[in-house]
């Protein structure tokens, strides 16, 4: 059996489950954020800071960013595998996208985690 090293999961089924799970987490995060913005009387610095000072919100945000990382990696791998036949170009694009996704995740960690309430 040939093992593909560039997939995020162990197999196509595992990738499928990771895609669906990450999509559900991102959808729940989006629904939560939209409902918060709609239901809040006013959204100012203090309200926004207090929201993200909560440990649960920090964890939920990092879970959502991790889901973006997983979803983005599997998605770009599938698209590039289907449409970019030159293996060198495909590897370069995968590298660039991987670095960008990791930078997004780290930026989210550095922005969200040190937030304290007002």
> Percent helix among the residues?
over 70%
Rg calculated over all Cα atoms:
18 Å
Q: What shape does the CA trace take?
A: elongated
Overall pLDDT metric: 90
Low-pLDDT ranges: none
CATH topology annotation? 3 helical TM bundles of succinate and fumarate reductases
Count of discrete alpha- or pi-helical segments spanning 4 or more residues: 4
CATH class reads Mainly Alpha
How much strand content do the residues show? under 5%
Count all strands and give the number.
0
- The N- to C-terminal Cα distance equals 56 Å
Largest sheet: none
Number of spatially distinct domains: 1
CATH architecture: Up-down Bundle
The fourth-level CATH homologous superfamily is Fumarate reductase/succinate dehydrogenase, transmembrane subunit
Structural class: mainly alpha
How would you spell out the order of helices and strands?
Answer: HHHH
Keywords: Cell inner membrane, Cell membrane, Electron transport, Heme, Iron, Membrane, Metal-binding, Transmembrane, Transmembrane helix, Transport, Tricarboxylic acid cycle
Pfam families: Sdh_cyt
Transmembrane segments: 17-39, 59-80, 92-115
Binding site for a ubiquinone: 83
């Amino acid at each position: 059996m040939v093992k593909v090293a560039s997939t995020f999961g162990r197999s196509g089924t595992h990738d499928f489950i990771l895609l669906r799970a990450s999509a559900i987490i991102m959808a729940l995060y989006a629904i939560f954020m939209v409902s918060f913005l709609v239901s809040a009387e006013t959204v100012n610095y203090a309200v926004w800071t207090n929201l993200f000072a909560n440990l649960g919100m920090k964890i939920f945000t990092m879970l959502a960013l991790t889901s973006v990382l997983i979803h983005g990696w599997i998605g770009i791998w599938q698209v590039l595998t289907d449409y970019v036949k030159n293996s060198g170009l495909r590897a370069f694009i995968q590298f660039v996208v991987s670095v960008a996704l990791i930078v997004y995740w780290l930026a989210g960690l550095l922005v969200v985690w040190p937030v304290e309430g007002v």
